[in-house]
Amino acid sequence: SRAGRAPFHCDTQLAYCFQAMATPQRGASTSAMLGPIAYASPIHSAAPQHKSQLAGRAGDVGPQILGRRALARDGPGAENEGGASAAGLSQTLAAVGAASVALRSLQKRDTRRGRRLKKGAVADAEVAEVVAPEVGMEAPGLGEVEEMAGLGGGGFSGYTGSNVAQRRVIPSAKQAEGRVKVKVVYVVLESQYQASMTAAVKQINKSGGPICAECVGYLLEEIRNPETVEELRKDLEDANIFVCSLIFVQELAEKLVELVAPQRDRLDACLCFPSMPEVMKLNKLGTFDLTKLTGGPLGSFAEQIKEARNKTLQAGKPAASGGAFQDSLLKLVRTLPKVLKFLPGDQAKDARTFILSLQHWLGGTPENVEAMLLRVAGQYVPAVTPGAIDLDRIMEPVVLPDSGIWHPLAPAIYDTYEEYMEWYKGHLNFVGVPQDAPMIGVILQKSHISTKDDGHYVSLIQELESRGARVLCGYTGGLDFSLPLREYFVNRVGGTEVDAMVNLTGFSLVGGPASQDAKKAKEALMKINRPYMVSVPLVFQSFTEWQQSQLGLHPVQVALQVSLPEIDGAIEPLIYAGRDGASGRTIPMQDRISTVATRALNWARLRQKPNAEKKVAICLFQFPPDKGNVGTAAYLDVFGSIFSVLGRLKEEGYTVEGIPEDIEGLQKSILEDPLEQYSMADLNVEYRMSVDEYEQLCPYAEDLRENWGPPPGTLNTDGRDLLVYGKRFGNIFLGVQPTFGYEGDPMRLLFAKSASPHHGFAAFYTYLEFVFGADALLHFGTHGSLEFMPGKQVGMSGSCYPDRLISVLPNLYYYAANNPSEATIAKRRSYASTISYLTPPAENAGLYKGLNELSELVKSYQGLRENEQRGASIVASIVATARQCNLDKDIEDLPQEDEDMKAVPIDERDLIVGKVYRRLMEIESRALPMGLHRVGVPPTAEESVATLVNIAQLDRPELGVKGLPNIIAASVGLNAEQVYRSADKGNLEDVARLQEITEACRAAVRTLVAESTNSQGRVEEPNFVVQDMMSFLYGGSPWKKAIDAAGFPNVNEDDLKPLFVYLQSCLKLIVCNNELPGLLKALNGEYIEPGPGGDPIRNPDVLPTGKNMHALDPQSIPTKAAVDTAYVVVERLLERLGKDGEFPESIAFTLWGTDNIKTYGESLAQVLALIGCRPVPDSLGRVNKVELIPLEQLGRPRIDVVCNCSGVFRDLFINQMNLLDRAIKMAAEADEPIEQNFVRKHTLDQAAEFNISVRQAATRVFSNAAGSYSANVALAVENGTNVDEEALQKQFVTRKGFALSSDNPGELTESSELFKSALSKVDLTFQNLDSSEISLTDVSHYFDNDPTKVVQNLRKDGKKPSAFIADTTTANAQVRSLSAQVRLDSRTKLLNPKFYEASLKGGYEGVREISKRLRYTFGWSTTAGAVDNFVYEDSNDTYIADEDIRKR
């Protein structure tokens, strides 16, 4: 039980105990009956009997029902067939007595905490406090209780707390006397087998048989630790039997093979159960070798295994291989033993033993493991006398059914929902749960049930039933966890019987720890159509390590058990159980269990509650905190969107009252006086919360005093009460989220690692939960502050502020589709179910004022270039106008205005005009988002043209689609890359040709849009048969004719067809209205279809919006396509810099989370390319390795790279940070000349400077401390505060100077001196742009993380480093100087009438978009001095000097 639990739960807990004693069952273990109260109990009865299964006949080979020990025994201690032993019953009674006393005392707890828990919220993480003493033993002291609960570990230092000694079992001298000792060493991914192995070995030693056993176990993650590796190596030297299972982490699999392979021939037996292929090859059991079997049933078996793996590796989908391989293997294992029994020869005997051993292992109980060890020792350990162990008396494998419906108190395992409900109805009556209560479907892992390590499962089941829910638990023995959904969560007629789902395995639905099949998972989940939570048990950390870690969940677990399930559509990755460091058992964390149960129930209740009764809170943001910024959200018309949402909710039957007549009225209802922009007090106050009420309702109010003093404080208060700003419209509350609290004084927290919520912030969320009583919360737009509050990165505890603030409210979040990285932070830290929204439709930026005049002059020159008099005169005008437009800053060798153009040869004049024309084209064709997007109002087909043109640019070889520029260029005997490169150099002919290709692309796409829409402007489903017929009859498709008319008559129709079929499907997705339906589905308690976030041009799978947005599998990047693009960018960068054969020695490189998601790791690949490394995928297609490219192949020096990783990149890609660090260390340790290896050159200098090893000095991967984001430089800029630049630069180094080392994965250590030393050697700073929607002046992040001036001040010579930007927003990747990119951004947006006219249509929200870009432009002056004066002068002329614009 737990502090403050409602009395009803105590009664339910006791009901479990008494029902367990009263129910004669072949069933649940004592620990299963009592759950967390008696998790330490060693007494177990048999597992539940499968309803349809009978015990196997004597002599049969194959799994049998559990029920007897490994060797037949009589006398005291033998199990009763009908249930638990007498000792077990005595222990149950003892446990009940202990529980009763404890429960009575626990009811007398703090009332405030109790009130919070009744609502389902939680306090700090706790493990079970009550431990039943073993009968006949003294009750353990406090220290022993903590050790049982896993509280004995140390701080997390990258490894799991390695305590191998606790898993070592050595026979006593008396037990070893006169017996052969067999040593067993095992390595497993998860710890649930530890208890079974330990119990099995202890039983062997107690039994008095011919052998005794020593065993020692290692958890896979522990072998990262060099000391543990040496310990394992030493143990293997005298081991007889080696066992391993589920070794699916590539680098650790390689390390394990390196350790075991040299000992394989010496070992008597080597049992490797489903793992990576290289690990499986270690199997050794007599003559049995999976890699060498040929012919007959055994050869067929081996071939089927190979085929099972090969099938899963086909079609470029290696990520699906792990689970499919294990399931295929298990199917073969179930059928093969009966065949092998009748085959002669040692090979068949050995194969049979291997299969039986695997079945024993899957059975998981101590009896099964004991039988496996005896069977293997008796046949393969030479020291054991043949016949000493009676092999015929060893029990056959006894396993649970492969899948079924399980309940800890059920007398059987059930095959169907209907059979289960026959029993369950009676159980519901016994525990007092209504028959029509919400049903929670729970997905379990068979191994935890079969090894009786099920206390965490039982705890959640009890918690759900105590809160009035019904529970339906399905499990499977394979790695395809979609089976319970398909088989058990539906009734006979296919109807869904659950109201919400919780996956307690922590793994992706299909694939488990190896990989995933997201498509199959999504199909299964969409069919069930219920909210799908995946809760995570700690595997690689003890409870204490996790609680003390700022990082939170171990990086390997984040990749396997958070990132992969998110792709399935999973939400809310809550930690709910930990590992006991002593026994290896899984311990429920009761406060987390409480949170999981309550959140699942709240989702389920959304299904059952009528819309008219549902209360929905909509949360607006404001940053910086003035009324001109209420409703802040990237690219979103917030009030217009909310107006659409309120109208639709009213149509759906929600109680929405008093909605203003128009958007302006809605805005005024919140702002009261829109013209009073700077007084927060003038916002509408919906609720005044007294300090007494606040302290009574908010359980963590006391904790905020340290930073903010006593309530009410100075923010969101009138000096007496705490104020909740917003407006209520019936059952809908529209509230304004308070800001962080330091915006008015940015220097206050400039040197702090993180912020913390103030009393007003806490009062706001307290009001939503306890006063307004919200059923769901909708955060509106990108983005707010909640998810960035202090706490762990991933795997929140009850003391993390995002967890405390959101409490148990279902959290929906409208998030911009192009920002998956920060959306992922919201998903993981504030349990958000994101619903993506589209960014505004784009148009070409076009030309204006002097640029337009310049374009006309270029056209004139093209017609008169050979006219000596007129042509020269026009070139002179072009030069003068280009200089007036400040293009001389972009064209290095542009002639002076007074130069005589008549004296310049015509080819040189062509080159001058070509360079100007190329710059004009670059500006004109830039995609420009127009205005703001409104939720529920998708773009029209016409508005989609520019987006489709950009989609058409890219080759998509995986789909068999060629990019349109390449198709058109091929028709004139060229390829697009040739045209791009020549045009970039100013070749007038190719600049003109590129413009013609661009116009042809636009014409073809416009024709497509016209052909795909009806007279009402709606997109219709294309009829490809009719299209083909019309093309045949009229001599080609409409788009081919458009291309013909544009001057390219020889285009191949066969190449056009797949592209335009693809574009038609993209058009339909762009105009699809799914954002409001997505919200309504979520509010109805349905499954939100998952989809990737990112750039819809690069990845149209982002469309349609309205999906539950996810990032990607971090182990899948960089992809091959990303590596290819990275080589092009690096080549162009070095081409610009290395003209004289000199290369930069060191580059400061900024890495972003969103960019790497959108580009599938292009910037990651760029860093590796600069170092001279290449990524190497493993056999499952995951990128976990790197290798050096030989210098002779590289053809240049290795360039040192200092990686400045954003906080979001750190959260999402910490495993890839390890990859980068390994690459840098590999280069630093390479025995190469320092003039060809700048990484080594600088590392040797630093090793001498700091008196450290070369490996320590090769530290180049830096970020913020865990839980901290940004350099805080942007705070000063965004608030218009004058801040000393030197202080800002010092702050940059302080906040960003936390280093990651692959030798301690996951640990970030303060290393600012090393950071400064590395930066002091930098010659160049570098960032990437991946999307025209988010460029340098659209967000503050880019300049906030720019180190240009920092490097200048750190360099001994004081020289300012060059600053470059890679622009991969189009098919023609560019590398520009930072100042050139700022100029391009300014010309296409800030100074462009097309941009500001569209923005002004959006009212004050549009004006904010203009203001933002000017502010962020100033940011580049602050951090890099990269803004030309003309940008500010032209901004003044445009917005201030122009009276009409200023008034507007």
Describe the protein in words:
There is one protein chain. With 1448 residues, the protein is α/β, with parallel strands linked by helices. Helix 1 packs antiparallel against helix 3, helix 12 crosses helix 13 and helix 34 crosses helix 36. The strands form nine sheets. An eight-stranded mixed beta sheet has the order 32-31-30-29-26-33-34-35, sandwiched between helices. A seven-stranded mixed beta sheet has the order 16-17-18-15-19-20-21, with helices on both faces. The longest helix is centred in the C-terminal third of the chain and has 25 residues.
In short:
The chain is of the alpha/beta class.
Write a concise keyword list for the protein shown above.
single chain, 1448 residues, alpha/beta, 8-stranded mixed beta sheet, 12% strand, disordered N terminus
The gyration radius over C-alpha positions equals 34 Å
Query: Mean pLDDT across all residues, rounded?
Result: 82
Helix content: 40-55%
Secondary structure: number of strands: 35
Give me the number of helical elements: 58
Low-confidence stretches: 1-11, 20-160, 294-298, 308-323, 674-679, 744-754
State the secondary-structure class. Answer: alpha/beta
Strand order of the largest sheet: 32-31-30-29-26-33-34-35
Main sheet: strands, sense, barrel: 8 strands, mixed
What is the beta-strand fraction? 5-15%
* Shape field: globular
- Report how far the terminal alpha carbons are from each other: 64 Å
